[in-house]
Amino acid sequence: MKTKPRRRRTGPPELSSTEFRRADTRKPRRFQTRDWALAAVVAGVAATLYFITAARDIVVGDGAEFITVAAVLGVPHPPGYPLFTMLGHIFSLLPLGPIPFRVNLMSVVCDSLAVGIVYLSALRLTSSRLAAMTVGLVLMVNPIFWTWSLSAEVFPLNNLLTALLILLLVTWHQKPESGGILVASFFVAGAGLTNQQTIILLAPAFVFILWQGRSILRKRPRLVAIAAAAFIIGLLPYFYIPWASSRHPAYNWGNISSLHDFISFITRRFYGSGRLVATIEYLGGSPIDRIWALCRSFGLVVGVFALLGVAEAYRRARWYCWFSLIAFGCTGPLFAWISNLNLKTTPAALFVLERFFLMPLVVVVPLVGFGVLMVSSLIRRYASSLPVPPLWPVAGVCLVASGASVIANYQDIDQSRNFIVRRFCEDIFRTAEPGTIFLTAGDAIVFPMTYLQTVEGLGSQITLINLSLFSQPWYVDQLRQRYPDVVFPFNSYDGRANNLKLLADANPGRRISFAVTPVIDDGSLYESYWPYQHGLLTVLEPKSKGLSFGDLLSDNKQLLEQYRPPAPGTVKKGTFESYILLAYAWPEFQIGGMLERAGAKDGARQLYQHALEVDPDFDLARNALAGLEH
């Protein structure tokens, strides 16, 4: 009697709930060629999405500084990020588009690889290709993860190293006899510290895995020594900092010349080693607000399935449940607590903090795979008559939700046509007269203008001074070398004896200018100078110099007509782009105030209205306009 041949299943294999519960999670799944191919596909899909939407130019944030140091092999702000700088320099040499785009591609590559590695971790943990692909998909389209994949930053490389470290630790736990995997994990941990030091927050979870394998380690002390040596080798990129600084590159933060300088630099003493930002006014606030912001950043799909995944992992792979909870607790809520950044001080505070939510996201997202298995088990139990494996509808729901997320967020996240920062800096350069001393502070202006001046040679006619560093003797020394025709009458600015008036008096033939308003006002300038609105710049003119109101209006009318302010709908709120929009609206607000005080209310009303058209969120202009009606 002939038996009917069994129909071959074409879908991805999955374990039944009973089979999975009986499986020994210490026994690793052997990756097959198909698994590696699927990891490459997942990473390739992420790379395609990120490449299409990646920034083609400089954007707000630290990216412009990182592009600068990558191009000139310089030294960025503490703790120096040497691994990123060296890899970024390699990307800057690619024959593909302008330099900013090349270095931005490093973030595209790193986060795409991170997605592929997270897929492998989820596959090793769940033994389900479909569940693992779902994990990779929801990570890929997470709005914050996607956003920070598009421009030069140290966090995508940190995501990659974090994902790789987790995969190595999971693999070693399942296969503790493989000493090479443990050695590799120690090396990755050391290398990670040379890129983004917050990876040290994974140390308690790392130690937990080592404790789980303590019986193996006690029998192999030589392996422990080799692993420790691998960790030290991973730290070697830090030697780049004194080497690069000794070359005196065009961008050289700190001018490291001694061991004391080096230690102070990598421990971030300039900012305060235990603080996220140096500005005291931005510290404080409710830690609950920061933790809630962290939870919101995960999104509904990751949040729900990860919570379910915790329960399922506790049943099926209890060691991993504790590992992930320890890792998440330290990288997420603990960091949010100790970062001490007040989210209510400025709309951009969350923009600064949310980059640090990426590592806990990478840590927690493999739990989504367990959540998918839990839901599919429930479907199998209560809807056993389904014509398809229960994993398919669960994965389908996640696919639909991810597709909806892409459609909903694409326009807001897409950076491929974002030239706001470049145009703003070019408008400033165009406004400043040759010989201008331009005083500014803040990442929104300093970093992009530094890039354009240092790498592309734009704005060479102005002296750019970062007031945030003006109190540092090494910075004043660098300014003297960079601008030998400018007189710096002191070795460091202190706002008292060594003040801005002293700088202005020492350079009588040069204009002193600020963007929008003086970012540091020590009170000394207004003894002899008065602020004159010159387009985007506030220029300090001697009180002895007379300028008519008619000259002010005609001068600014011509400048404002040449500017290219971004359309309000294209500006990403809650980022430094909002500051740029304010800078474009500020001149008309200032001149409108002068007209109002002179009694020309109709002219003032027109300028206030136009300032609001440029920046609809400009409350000062709105209040001034309302005041004219009373």
General description of the model:
- By secondary structure, the chain is mainly alpha-helical.
- 60% of the residues lie in helices and 4% in strands.
- The chain contains 28 helices and 5 strands.
- The protein has helices at 17-22, 33-53, 63-72, 82-92, 99-126, 129-140, 143-147, 155-174, 179-193, 203-212, 214-219, 221-234, 240-246, 259-266, 287-316, 318-339, 349-353, 358-364, 367-382, 391-413, 420-431, 443-454, 473-482, 500-506, 549-562, 577-597, 601-614, 619-628; strands at residues 437-440, 463-466, 512-515, 529-534, 537-542.
- Strands 2-1-3-5-4 form a 5-stranded mixed sheet.
- Helix 22 links the parallel strand 1 (437-440) and strand 2 (463-466).
- Helix 2 packs antiparallel against helix 5 (99-126) and helix 3 crosses helix 5.
- The chain is globular and about 85 Å long.
What labels would you give this structure?
single chain; 630 residues; mainly alpha; 3 domains; 5-stranded mixed sheet; 28 helices
What structural category do the secondary elements indicate?
Answer: mainly alpha
**What's the story with the biggest beta sheet?**
5 strands, mixed
Taking all residues together, what is the mean pLDDT?
89
Mass-distribution shape: globular
How many strand units? 5
Strand content: under 5%
Radius of gyration: 28 Å
Which stretches are low in confidence, meaning pLDDT under 50 for 5 or more residues running? 1-26
Q: What is the number of independent domains?
A: 3
Within the largest sheet, what's the order of strands?
2-1-3-5-4
Question: What's the end-to-end separation, in Å?
Answer: 100 Å
Q: Into which percent range does the helicity of residues fall? A: 55-70%
Number of helices: 28
